[in-house]
Write a structure and sequence with these properties.
The complex is a heterotrimer. By secondary structure, chain A is an alpha/beta fold. Chain A has 7 helices and 15 strands. Chain A folds into 2 domains: 91 residues, Elongation Factor Tu (Ef-tu), domain 3, CATH 2.40.30; 131 residues, Nucleotide-binding domain of ferredoxin-NADP reductase (FNR) module (Rossmann fold), CATH 3.40.50. Chain A has a 7-stranded mixed sheet with strand order 10-9-8-7-11-12-15, sandwiched between helices. Chain A is globular. Chain B is an alpha+beta fold. Chain B folds into 2 domains: 183 residues, Aspartate Aminotransferase, domain 2 (3-Layer(aba) Sandwich), CATH 3.40.640; 121 residues, no CATH class. Chain B has 11 helices and 12 strands. In chain B, the strands form 2 sheets. Chain B has an 8-stranded mixed sheet with strand order 3-2-6-7-8-9-1-10. Chain C folds into 3 domains: 52 residues, N-terminal domain of TfIIb (Single Sheet), CATH 2.20.25.90; 245 residues, Rossmann fold (3-Layer(aba) Sandwich); 197 residues, Dimethylsulfoxide Reductase, domain 2. Helix content of chain C is 37%, strand content 15%. Chain C has a 7-stranded mixed sheet. Chain C has a 5-stranded parallel sheet with strand order 10-9-8-12-13, sandwiched between helices. The chains are: A alpha/beta, B alpha+beta, C alpha/beta. Chains B and C meet through strand 3, helix 7, helix 8 and helix 10 of B and strand 1, strand 2, strand 3, helix 1 and helix 7 of C. The structure holds flavin-adenine dinucleotide (FAD) and iron/sulfur cluster (SF4) (4 copies). One iron/sulfur cluster binds next to helix 9 of chain B.
């Protein structure tokens, strides 16, 4: 019987600074069979263990780069995440997963795509964006909106630039404020960027990730008013989580478990959950 | 023999039966400690008590312990070695009550759903369950309203119903059948007369419940969001964040996970019972907490037990064992809440009792 | 698998629960349902009280500080080192340059032994513990008024009371189980008069919430008595037969008219009058208070005033009445009872009382010091002056509990040899020269006395962690090395000695504690069932003494954890 609680060990093989307290780590499983068997979908997450400290759920932020290695983009905010930020290349962590449902991909084919990523909310969107760009011909127009606290917090900066150069892909960015950095782009909330884009809501899918209040504003004040269908608005939910497999009860909201029924939900599904935020 | 057939056994044979089983299997049974009754692994037959209402805690802890090691970790030359043990012990629980038996099916739904919990699963498979039907319910019990007792419909390997001088016995599984076959000399075929007497005994028991619980309409009201927020506020103000309601509840399955280093390079990961009424349950690292207020957490508890179970598994998540009635420091419990919600209909949901002066000001 | 019944180590409620033990490991906790306080309930601390036992931070071996760093040593070395240093100090500057702190967390037997060690082995009365900082006002005040400084009634009487006057106690937070009794009483129709400057959980359920300005307690209590006397609602009979000095009280409270009281306290006249009438017009009126009353410069005055109020109305000496201080730590009551105080032996028998001292000298076989010793605060002062050279701390953390931490740190650093016996390396232990690892409450036998004077067993469930040892064993070993022989085989033998020497504990023996749920002192002899409520037929001091006190504006407030 497989023990779903037992992590597999992985080594840190790369660390990239993405701004203050934000790093993207590249990991590779130590055991070669595990490496071989590992596969996942954008929107799924892993449970990352630092032995002796604890375990946290983190979205996969890479698309499958190479068998057995993957990336996580992590904000240092509490015990486990801070200890991870202190680790170096070569250090060993534990990994369980992937868990969760992941983003719909085939269903979005043939449509225009709108990505709205606030802060670290870009992390789970990144593999999806990459996969869509790799399969460019399957999708219509692609618009990417990213909002960050200050210019220093813009994540995947180089990639955003690269994506913007691809034919039929538009990238817009904004920052809430400037903290002494050099910035000649937009300043203000992510919703400002809606003035700059044109999209046909009837034949589009919107992927919205970020802080909950942002999701509410973007969806309720913009997307729905623009005419997006409730099931064409897709988001991920974040909850206190322990086991990742629907046992521990922490992420249970209404009749749904974020870990096994989500974390990806359509707005139609989200709407009927108890209004706890 | 297995399906509809009824067996009986002389009451005096119960200890001889258990003694024989005990030769090659661990037995967990109600044991009297001072004036309290607890389920315990017994060493000898004279520890067992048959004179009890229900144990302080259900046998939940024998499947989902209050504290359980998930694995040990140890750093070995740049990697970690993880080891775990899954107890491999054939056990028999004698004397579990029907409510607690039904509660196990809720734990099954959670732990043996899409993902299987290996620790729970093995213990569950290795355990034989013999329930003993109650004939004199405790003051806080209301299983009859939760459709979980006094007799069980399923889930048992053997079900014993105490009549005047004998038990009627129902076989619920292959495991139960094996016991009957192995010790066939202690059992007898039951007759219509036994069945009639059983009916009378159970029927009489049903009239002895002091508490009332009415789940269907209450659940409906919750689902329709017809319960005033002020009720949750009032209940929240009584809650003292002890977590007891979840710890004692035979259907509560939530846990926390903690790493406990023993040295720099090794340690254990454990899980412990957790409760959704505690602040930390949904607290997020960034400082947000969707259930920051006590009223939100109390509301959550009852929504989970009633609405969520109904939505997900089509049944309500309370078996009416009455333990939260005993354990709650604030007097907020399933039976109380049901009562309050019903009172709400009459516009007097604050239990003013006889005292006009009792005022809850919020 | 065994179930070991024991008493919670966190607060003065004294809940009982069972540890489930398998292979020397605690695997679970079950509250006792039949226990009169627990009733199948525990608070979050009780439910999780096994957690700290297995903490990786437990001390596992004796430590001696050398060159500023702790080094693990054997028991033999640690105890040898301490006894040599203590002996040397005692010989050079006398026993009074040594002092000892007992502990509100340790058992009665251990506190008994540590005060015996202080007095008989070291030869000084310099023994105290943290009750000083929390409830010494209670002991002083209630002893003055009644002759006995403890909670007069029992916790489960709360449920049957008509009026609960709760002041200076955030009961649901600090004494959850008692808070639960209060909620239950209210549900059953009792009325809660809450007097507290803050809005607390109980406020939502109070019939009246009087929010006085902090530090004005004497004023509102005097005001209440003013109303009761003016309305002739006091108990003339009781006042006449059971008390003395009423006229003086009457004179003092005369000026505390509701208007005058409002000016001082901010409590509206009407609320004060209603509260006074409510309290006086019901027979079953209980006063419940805690550290909000005692932790003031005027703490003793506050306690005296509450005692005055209860005597005035005769709400004493009966079920569901009384003046009920809620003691903070699990065994702060017991630590006081068994004499971990500088001026009294066990059972509040004065060290200055010739007869008493002779009794102790006879049983202990040693000459005892005559003068009361130093209090915690005095110890710290003397240590700074260099007059205290050696200190032994059993299970207390003055670095956390004392009001002025820099002062304490300075004092402790100055001490030549500081010994701390604890289960964790506390802030205080970090400053120590020798640290001794003690066994936790799950690893030893003994008794705790809860806030309602109920003496209850704790029982060993598992073996001590690492090299740790029960506190009583450590004290006994040290005493033997210092030349005063102790030879107890178990805490039960120590309890027997307490019973022999202590009238209020005279009938408290382990075999009796096996039946029922502990014994409430006073319990004179083996036939005495104990005393659920005090002062039934009079006060220990004879007549209850009214001690009129005037309101003095607050200058400074002290807080401590306890
Ligand atoms: C599906 C999902 C995907 C996520 N993806 C990312 C990501 O890609 N990058 C990233 O930086 N963060 C992500 N998070 C948030 C991340 O899990 C938390 O920041 C992290 O758990 C904080 O743990 P800590 O030990 O550092 O903080 P502490 O405050 O010490 O947290 C203690 C424990 O509480 C729980 N907890 C606290 N906050 C959260 C939270 N926000 N979400 C879930 N559990 C929490 C965890 O079990 C954690 O072990 C994700 C969360 C979820 C649920
Ligand atoms: S909610 Fe209460 S009565 Fe219902 S099963 Fe749980 S503990 Fe028993
Ligand atoms: S009631 Fe609370 S603790 Fe119990 S199972 Fe539901 S969410 Fe978990
Ligand atoms: S048992 Fe009662 S007081 Fe304790 S957490 Fe549950 S609801 Fe709150
Ligand atoms: S109320 Fe006090 S004695 Fe009872 S469990 Fe809580 S801390 Fe322990």
């Amino acid at each position: 019987m497989e023990n779903i609680y037992l992590p597999k060990t992985a080594k840190i093989i790369g660390i990239k600074d993405e701004g203050l307290d934000l790093k993207t780590f590249t990991f590779s499983f130590i055991n070669s069979e595990v490496k071989e068997a590992f596969s996942y979908k954008p929107g799924q997450f892993l449970e990352l263990s630092i032995f002796g400290v604890g375990e946290v759920p983190i979205s996969l932020s890479s698309s499958q780069i190479e068998k057995g290695s993957f990336q996580l983009t992590i904000y240092a905010i509490g015990e486990v995440t801070r200890s991870l930020h202190k680790m170096k290349v070569g250090d060993v962590v534990g990994i369980r997963g992937p868990f969760g449902n992941g983003f719909p991909f085939d269903e979005a084919k043939g449509k225009d795509i709108l990505f709205v990523g606030g802060g670290i909310g870009m992390a789970p969107l990144r593999p999806l964006i990459k996969d869509m760009i790799d399969n460019r011909s399957d999708f219509g127009h692609i618009i990417i909106l990213h909002g960050a606290r200050t210019p220093r917090y813009i994540i995947f900066r180089d990639e955003l630039k690269e994506w913007g150069k691809v034919e039929g892909v538009e990238v817009h960015m904004t920052v809430n404020r400037v903290d002494g950095e050099k910035w000649d782009g937009e300043i203000g909330l992510i919703t400002r960027l809606f003035d700059k884009i044109e999209i046909n809501p009837r034949n589009s899918v919107a992927f919205v990730c970020g802080p909950l209040f942002m999701i509410h504003i973007v969806v309720e004040d913009y997307l729905l008013k623009m005419g997006f269908q409730e099931e064409a608005i897709i988001s991920t939910l974040e909850r206190h989580m322990k086991c990742g497999v629907g046992h521990c009860g922490h992420c249970n909201v209404g009749p749904k478990y974020i870990c096994i029924d989500g974390p990806v939900f359509t707005y139609r599904e989200m709407k009927i959950l108890p209004k706890e935020f | 023999m297995m399906d509809n057939s009824l067996l009986t056994m002389n009451k005096e044979y119960i200890i001889p039966l258990l003694r024989r089983i005990h030769k090659n299997q661990e037995i967990i049974a109600p044991v009297k400690e001072k004036e309290d009754v607890l389920f315990s692994v017994i060493k000898s037959m004279d520890e067992i008590t048959l004179d009890y209402k229900n144990a302080v805690l259900s046998p939940k802890g024998f499947f989902f312990p209050q504290q359980e090691v998930i694995f040990k970790y140890k750093e070995v030359s740049g990697d970690y070695e993880l080891s775990f043990t899954i107890t491999d012990k054939k056990r028999l629980i004698f004397g579990i009550r029907s409510c607690d038996l039904k509660a196990l099916s809720f734990l099954d739904a959670v732990y043996l759903g899409r993902y299987k919990d290996p620790y729970y699963q093995k213990k569950r498979e290795d355990t034989t369950l013999i329930n003993l039907v109650c004939v004199s319910p405790d003051t806080n019990c209301f299983c009859v309203y939760a459709n979980s007792g006094p007799m069980a419909e399923e889930g048992f390997d053997l079900q014993f119903v105490p009549l005047s001088n004998r038990f009627t016995i129902h076989v619920g599984s292959k495991k139960g059948q094996d016991i009957v076959e192995k010790y066939h000399y202690l059992f007898q075929e039951g007759t219509q007369k036994d069945l009639d007497e059983e009916y009378e005994v159970v029927h009489e028991t049903k009239t002895k419940f002091l508490r009332y619980g009415e789940f269907a309409t209450i659940t409906q009201k919750l689902i329709q969001e017809e319960v005033e927020e002020s009720l949750w506020k009032m209940l929240g103000d009584r809650c003292q964040n002890c977590g007891g309601c979840a710890y004692v509840c035979p259907t509560c399955s939530c846990f926390n996970v903690i790493d406990r280093p023993t040295t720099e390079r090794e340690g254990v990961r454990i899980r412990t019972w957790d409760s959704c009424t505690l602040f930390g349950f949904t607290h997020l690292a960034e400082g947000l907490n969707p259930r920051k207020e006590k009223k939100d957490r109390i509301k959550r508890r009852f929504y989970h037990k009633l609405d969520c179970y109904m939505g997900r598994w089509g049944t309500c998540g309370c078996v009416g064992c009455g333990r939260c009635v005993t354990a709650c420091l604030g007097g907020i419990d399933m039976s109380h809440v049901i009562h309050q919600i019903r009172m709400e209909e009459y516009g007097e949901y604050i239990s003013a009792k006889d005292s006009e002066d009792y005022r809850y000001k919020g | 698998m065994k179930n070991v019944l024991t008493t919670c180590t966190y607060c003065g409620c004294g809940c009982n629960f069972y540890f489930q033990v398998e292979d020397d490991e605690i695997v679970g906790i079950t509250p006792s349902k039949a226990h009169p306080i627990s009733r199948g309930r525990l608070c979050v601390k009780g439910w999780n009280s096994y957690e700290f036992i297995k903490s990786p931070h437990r001390l596992k071996s004796p430590l001696i500080k050398r060159d500023g760093r702790f080094k693990e040593v054997s028991w033999d070395e640690a105890l040898g080192f301490i006894s040599e240093r203590f002996k040397q100090i005692k010989e050079t500057t006398g026993p009074d340059s040594l002092c000892v702190l007992g502990s509100a967390k340790c058992t009665n037997e251990e506190n008994y032994l540590i005060q015996k060690f202080t007095r008989a082995t070291l030869g000084t009365n310099n023994i105290d513990h943290c009750a000083r900082l929390c409830h010494s006002a209670t002991v002083t005040g209630l002893t003055t008024s009644f002759g006995s400084g403890a909670m007069t009634n029992s916790i489960n009487e709360i449920e049957g009371a008509d009026i609960l006057l709760v002041t200076g106690s955030n009961t649901t937070e600090q004494h959850p189980q008692i808070g639960s009794f209060i909620l239950k009483a209210i549900e059953g129709g009792a009325r809660l008069i809450l007097v507290d400057p803050r809005k607390i959980q109980l406020s939502c359920f109070a019939h009246l919430h009087l929010q006085q300005k902090p530090g004005t307690d004497v004023a509102w209590i005097n005001g209440t008595m003013n109303v009761i006397i003016n309305k002739e609602m006091y108990d003339r009979d009781f006042v006449k037969r059971r008390t003395e000095n009423f006229e003086a009280l009457k004179k003092t409270v005369a000026k505390y008219t509701p208007t005058f009281v409002r000016e001082i306290t901010g409590i509206p006249e009407n609320d004060l009058i209603r509260a006074s009438i409510l309290y006086a017009s019901h027979k079953k009126s209980m006063i419940i208070y805690s550290m909000g009353i005692t932790q003031h410069v005027t703490g003793v005055d506050n306690v005296l005033s509450l005692a005055n109020l209860a005597m005035l109305t005769g709400r004493l000496g009966e079920l569901h009445t009384g003046v009920n201080p809620l003691r903070g730590q699990n065994n702060v009551q017991g630590a006081c009872d068994v004499g971990a105080l500088p001026d009294v032996y066990t059972g509040y028998q004065k060290v200055t009382d010739e007869k008493v001292r002779e009794k102790f000298e006879r049983v202990w076989g040693v000459k005892l010091p005559k003068d009361p010793g130093l209090t915690v605060v005095e110890m710290m002062n003397e240590a700074r002056n260099g007059r205290i050279r050696g200190m032994y701390i059993m299970g207390e953390n003055p670095m956390l509990s004392n009001p002025d931490i820099t002062h304490v740190k300075e004092a402790l650093e100055k001490i030549e040899i500081l010994v701390v016996q604890d289960i964790f390396l506390s802030e205080t232990a970090e400053l120590a020269d020798v640290v001794l690892p003690a066994a936790s409450f799950a690893e030893k036998d003994g008794t705790f006395t809860n806030t309602e004077r109920r003496v209850q067993r704790i029982r060993q469930a598992i073996s001590p962690i690492g090299e740790s040892k029960p506190d009583w064993w450590i004290i006994q070993e040290l005493s033997n090395r210092m030349g005063y022989s102790m030879n107890y085989a178990s805490p039960e033998e120590i309890a027997e000695e307490i019973a022999l020497l202590t009238p209020i504990y005279g009938g408290i023996y382990y075999d009796r504690l096996e039946e029922g749920w502990g014994l409430q002192w006073p319990c004179k002899d083996r036939s005495d069932p104990g005393t659920p409520f005090l002062h039934k037929n009079g006060f220990p001091r004879g007549k209850g003494l009214f001690t009129p006190v005037d309101y003095v504006p607050p200058i400074q407030k002290r807080r401590c954890r306890g």
